[in-house]
Amino acid sequence: MDQRGVKTRKRNLIKKGSGLFELRPPEYFSVPLLAADGDMPVRAVNVGEKVCEGSLIAKPSGRYGSFVYSPCSGKVVGIVRKLNANGNECEHVVIERDLENEKELMSPLDALEQTPEQLLKRLYMSGMTDNFMPYEPAYKKYLLKCNIKTLIINCTEDDPYQSCDSAMIETLTSEVVEGARLLKKLCKADQIVFIFTLANMSAETSLRNHIKKLGDKTIKIKTYSNVYPLHNSRLIAYYETGKMVVRGARTAQIGVIVESVSNCLDFYNAVMKGIPCTQRAVSVTGKNTLRKANYFIKNGTPISHVLKLVGTKKEYDDNMLIYGGIMSGIAQETLDISVGLGASVIIFTDSGDYEKDNETPCINCGRCLRACPVRLNVKRLDDAITLRRFDMAKKLGVDACIDCGACSYVCPAKRFLAQRMSFAKDIVDGKVGKKPTSSNYILIEGEDLTRQGVEFETDTKKINETQSSALPEIDEMLKVLNEKTKQEEEEQARKNQEMQAKLAKKDAKKNDEGGKK
């Protein structure tokens, strides 16, 4: 299968085998109720309320919403509206942490309760969010009425700075594998395929040894070459099956579901321990980061707190904070953001890792066309977007762009191709333009915490409390599994009838032949 993209050099700034660390929690959490894009959840707490670690602080609204849980024990001291790390405006629940460490967990599911229906409920209730494009609630891809053949666990870490997945596999091998097996049971897949690249062979070896001890023949391991990108589920499904996933469709329609290592671990914790999703493993690295390592970081931890704990060099004038990988991450112009559940890499670096010179005219070399993994005509798209011909950009398929940044990476003219493509996608999708900075906020409820020296508040304005909406019925989602099970039973019954008919016909033929003799 032809893997299109670019070859990047692995930046192993984090020492291999260094494991995973728990980041010390901050005094204040600012929990975004929207992980990236999607339907805005409805806040379930008010200022002054006491919350425990794992307490529900927001519930779904709309068709595809998600639950949000408190990352700590403490008191809700403010509700603010500002931008999350992906540039989308949403409410943030500000929680002042206490030292009581009280927890409010779900009941673990025993073996008899681990049916597909119960597992779907638990996935829905867990608050899990994909930490890959398009950063949707994790349960969404399990709702289609499709026969799933393969569950793919993406362990490739194609971004040069990412190593948190390898750390999870090497440190928590059993939990990751058992989480994958639970997801396989949920979607009724025939097999699990863990995919790696040549750059993370040590993690592959750890996983291979564990699977060998298990003796599970339905779990396989495959290795890809070091070609970026491999973080997109549509591409991975194509490489594994040879079948194209058309725009707007899902990989489940060709019998494939793609999951991340983080989701395997989080689902294991949700099912076996009753722990909702409140943290993610993140690679904190970059040239200007002193204590480079892989950390478990709680949802809502301010970036300023992260950088304070890991330590940064002060002698640079061109520091840049990048939320996400160096290839497709978002450069932040303020520390007034929080780590969300879609996080995988946080980079604090200098100009040696990014281009800050002005772009020059296109030289028509065609490198962007050869690099694009979804085979877009990047040159024509760039011309259309520059002329603000968004109707033409839509006809050229700009909405198929996967935001990998490969076109900008190979462009010798240093043109901002990926940025313009992302902007045009927002226009074509009808999204409201994102605000230029996340440093301003609207205080919805609570005190102005700037008086207490908290960094993530700068302005105040009272507005009415958000109105609540009805919780989507999980029964509607379970109908999908019920109908799928019914179809499978009917198909099996039909096959049994055909088999019985064949056997009866065969017996009748034997009797006829015996009678003639």
What is the structure about, briefly put?
This protein is 31% helix and 17% strand. The protein is an alpha/beta fold and 517 residues long.
List keywords for this structure.
alpha/beta, 31% helix, six-stranded mixed β-sheet, globular, single chain, 517 residues
Could you describe the 3D structure shown?
This protein has helices at about 115-125, 165-170, 175-185, 200-215, 235-240, 260-275, 305-310, 365-370, 380-385, 390-395, 405-410, 415-430, 475-515, and strands at about 20, 30, 40-45, 50, 55-60, 70, 75-85, 90-95, 150-155, 190-195, 220-225, 255-260, 280-285, 295-300, 320-325, 330, 345-350, 440-445. Strands 1-14-13-17-15-16 form a six-stranded mixed beta sheet. Strands 2, 4, 7, 8 and 18 form a five-stranded antiparallel beta sheet that branches. A four-stranded parallel beta sheet has the order 11-10-9-12, sandwiched between helices. Among the domains are: about 285-355; about 365-430, no CATH class. It has 13 helices and 18 strands. Strand 5 and strand 6 (about 70) form a beta hairpin. The chain is an alpha/beta fold.
Could you describe the largest sheet, including whether it forms a barrel?
6 strands, mixed
Uncertain segments are: 435-439, 450-474
Report, as a whole number of angstroms, the end-to-end distance: 58 Å
Q: Calculate Rg over CA atoms.
A: 25 Å
Number of helices: 13
Strand content: 15-25%
Task: Report the structural category.
Answer: alpha/beta
Percent helix, as a range, is 25-40%
**Oligomerization category of the chains in this entry:** single chain
